[in-house]
Amino acid sequence: MSSLNLQPALPQLWRDRFGRAWFSIGAKIVLPYFLLTLVVAGVGAFIVVRLVTASLQERFHNQLLDAGRVVSENMVALEEQRLEVLRMVVATEGVAESMLAGSQAGLAQRVPQIIANSQTDVVELIDLSGRELYGWQRPPGRVGFAGEARTGADYSREVVVQQTLAGFTDELGDKHLWLGETPHGLVLFTVGPVYHQDKVVGAAMVGTYLSQMVVEFTENAVARVTLYDTQGQVLDTTLGGNLAGTAELLQEPPGLYQTILTLLQETPERHAVVVATAEAEVPLQPIQVLGQEYSLAYGDWRLRDQSLGFFSVALPRNFVLTTAATSRNTLSLLFSALTIGVIVVGFAIAQRIITPLNRLVQTSVAVAQGDLAQRTGIRSNDEIGSLAESFDTMTDHLVERNRLLVEQASELEAILNSTADGIIVLDQQGVMISSNPAARHILTEVSADFLADILRELPQGAFLRGGADQVNWQQSRRYEVGNRVFSAVMAPVRTPNEDVLGTVVALRDVSREVEAERLKDSFITSISHELRTPLTSIKMYTDLMTMTHQGDERQLRNIQTIERNTNKLLHHITQIIDISEIQAGSLNLIKSELDFVELIGEGVESWRTEFEGKGLSFELSLPAEAALLSGDAARLSWAVDNLLSNAYHYTLRGGVSVTLRHDAQQIWLAVADTGVGIAPADQPFLFTRFFRAKHQAMFEVAGVGLGLYITRSLIELHGGQVWFESEPEAGSTFFVTLPLLL
Fold first, then answer.
1. Which end of the chain is more exposed for a tag (fewer CB within 10 A), N or C?
2. Sign of the dihedral defined by the CA atoms of residues 693, 699, 702, 704, in that order
């Protein structure tokens, strides 16, 4: 039975071993190294072979381009020789007279003497009717005076002859080119007029056989040369030894001529046929002639700014192909041997790396599973030894860190459990993650939606990166649950990347504090009313005493001091009473339709003397048209007066400006000063009652911190808004908006 059970287990065992070997770190080191070596060797061999081949190909192309340049230069040189011979013929004494007289004998006596020792093959002298007066042609292969004279040929239909006899000239002069057919082959003629006493008496043509030209080009350029007409037809060639059937191999389509011209015209006019990059600038074409591979480079056959067709130079490719094949085989063998050596050495090195790594892996797995007593035990001076030592040190630190974390967690838990305030941690969805006993006790006494109500007050995006910065987390919020009041303060839980994971809520039962505040407010309201009654009487009597005093200045000053302090005390008491009414929602506004522009103008002007007396500039900018709104004139004047009072007291130098603007819907008021400004730490509490911003230069400023609180409350009761902008030591600007009557 046991043998039967082992049979199916053996393949699985081998599969497991193969899988472990395949995914082991040894395989991950050796196999990529092996593959990388093969790839690098193959790519290296390929690149080197390509570089060698490219170098050979570049040398070959340069030879082609040099050959093309030589052919172009020889074409120009032959043209200059024909021009020189033509000038000699035309300028020889007696030639023009003989042509004018129609004397063939005179021409036969002079012309052969001129051209016998030149490379000119054909001379034609034509009268004004376009007929050949005298012609001399040296057959191919002959030299010296071994030429044939002739006469009577009709050239009157040739355009170039007609233009020459008509005295036609262009920007290059009165000489022209013509490719003509003769009994001994094609001839390239240079044609010019013959003058006698500044009158054209005929034309002279000096020509060279194309067959002689291509042979000379081939000898000078050390390359096979082919001449084409403008239609791409071969005129003459030395490629293939000029054997029968070779010319047919070189026939080109007519469109190739224009293609070549277009490519060449992209370079400067006098630029050489060969340019820096042959593949991009010079047309190339491979061709096989009589079993031999050639490469052809084309150029424009252009003389005297006239294109006669195009030419090609050809060189055999056997050298390039043979050398490239030899280099490829040699380099392939060399790279193969080096690859095998690198693989063997790499495998041995990999084994030395893998053994300590396996030990390091085993230790790390044990530590990950909770066995913090495991250590690698590797001691070596290489990077793996440093890694193993660092891992052992890290494990020691991890043990110590775990111990500290356990202690800190125990301390934190003890602190939270002993805290009377309720601490709750919520995730981004408002689900409670953790809480202390005080929080759990509070939650048993409130509704299930209590936490949802708290989170509902947060703006959208509060849990997004950057959104938490837009929330005033320091603001304490109060919630009434039955006859109890809870204070809640929230703070975001942030990651080191400033991502908000949730919210920490601190709950405190402030029912007693709230009740104490209510009793305090009630007491202040009652005592304020009680104090205002006698103060009113005191003020009334001081007014009466002021009006009836009998000239005692000291007594008058005392009465005025009593009156001034009585007014100040009465003002503070009135503020406290108004605040109580505002908090209770019982402040009675006596609204009427009023012009806010007029109200500001009258109220602000009373401050001008105060500002100027302090040495401050004062600017008032009001619109010309009225701005009507529904409001309590006295309360609005009081609100604006508080803003001006702040600007007066907190501005040491510079000035104050009041600007009023309005559109069709609302009024916009700005009170700007150049005072001490408001510290960033004080700005969130500026509109809180009994709060006064602190500044070292402003300790002498009196006040109880109610002005801005009253201003905001009164403006908001009128449906408006108040806000400010301020920088420390750079002044402040308070803005007020109020709705207009529509």
1. N
2. positive
